[in-house]
Amino acid sequence: MDFRYLSFTHAAKRLHTVQPSLSRQIRQLEQIVGTPLLQRDKRDVKLTEAGRVFLEKARAMLRDLDDAIALARRAARDEAGQITIGFAPGTEARLFIVLLPALRQKFPEMRPTFRALSDPDMIAGLKNHSLNVAFLAADDIDEHPEIVSEIVFRQPLVAVLPARHPLARLRRIPVAKLAAVPLVSPAASSAPTLRKVIQQVAVRHGVAFVSAIDMDNILATLNAIGSGMGFTLLPQYQRHILPDNVVMRPLADDPPPFLDLRMAYRKDDRLPALAFFLGLVRECLQENRQP
Q1: What is the predicted pLDDT for the residue at 288?
Q2: 20 or 275: which leads in pLDDT
Q3: pLDDT tens readout for residues 19-59
Q4: CATH tag for 83-288 (out of 1.10.8.60, 3.40.190.290, 3.40.50.1000, 3.40.50.720)
C-alpha cells in the first residue's frame, strides 16, 4: 500500500504486484494486528487511528533497521581493515619504506598496528592471535604446524664494529681477525636464529668467538658496540639504524653468510585485511627474494 496516495493501484504498481494480491496481504496484516488499519469505501481509502499509529511505528522500525544495517556494514569494514603486524627491530627501514606508501595508495581504509618484538614473542603472538602477520628471522618457524612462512628477502651478515676500531679500516674483514675481538652476542631469548648463525660462521672458519655480553635488543647492541665493548654480526639491512660511532664492513667470506627474513602468519587466519596485505608484500618485495 502506498500511504502517500492511499491508493491500492499506486501501491500495487510500486510494489510490482497486482491489486488483489496486495489487498489480500493487507487483510492478513490486519488479522495479525487484530484491528482494521484502513477504512475502505468505493471512492476512498483512509487510515484508521490504529493504522496511523502502526504506520508511524513501522516507519520508525524500518529507519532503525536501515541504521543497524549501515552500522553493521561499517563495523565489518572497520574490522576488515584492522591488522596487527609484528617486526624485528631494525627491519622497519628496509620493509616499511616500500610497503607503507603502497599500502596507503592501494588500501587507504586499512589501519595497521605495528609492534616491535623479538622472534619468540612474534611466534607466541601469532599462536595466541594477538598478531596477524610477523616479519622475523626464526628458522624453526616450520616446527609450528599452525603457522606458515615465506622468505621475503635475504641479506648477508656483515661485521659491525666501533668506528675507531683498527679493523674498521679494512674494506672486508677476515673472520679469523674477529675472533680476537669480544663478541656482543644477541641473547638466545630474543634472537636465537641470529645467535646460531653467528656461531656457525665461527665454526666454519675454525675459530671461537668469545662473548663479552649478551644483549636482548638491537639498539642496546649498537650502543654497546659504539662504546667499544666489541663487535657483532648483523644482517645488512640494519645499516639504516647505525649510530655515527658504529660502522658495518662486509666479511672476507665467499659466499657470505645470509640471514633470511620471513613473513609468517597463521594458516587459519581469514581476516580480509591479511589477504590484501600478504599480496601487497609479495608484489612490493618480489625482487628482494633472492640475494
Answers
A1: 46
A2: 275
A3: 777 778 878 878 888 888 887 776 777 888 887 888 888 88
A4: 3.40.190.290
Shortest CA distance to 249 belongs to which of 261, 269, 231? 231
Q: Where are the alpha helices (DSSP H) in 82-174?
A: 92-106, 119-127
Q: Quick one: cell of 167?
A: 679493523
Other beta carbons within 10 Å of 125: 18
C-alpha cell at 205: 672458519
pLDDT score at 247? 97
Helix (H) / strand (E) containing 139? none
Quote the distance between the C-alpha of residue 181 and its chain's center. Answer: 40
Contact in structure between 236 and 248 (CB atoms under 8 Å) = yes
90: region left, alpha or beta (phi > 0 left; psi from -120 to 50 alpha) = left
Look at residue 7 and tell me whether its pLDDT is greater than 70.
no
CATH 1.10.10.10 fits domain 8-79: yes
d(CA 123, CA 64): 44
pLDDT at 139 over 70: yes
* Residue located via cell numbers 647505525: 242
Taking each helix axis as running N to C, give the angle between helix 272-285 and helix 92-106, from 0 to 180 degrees, rounded to the nearest 10. 120
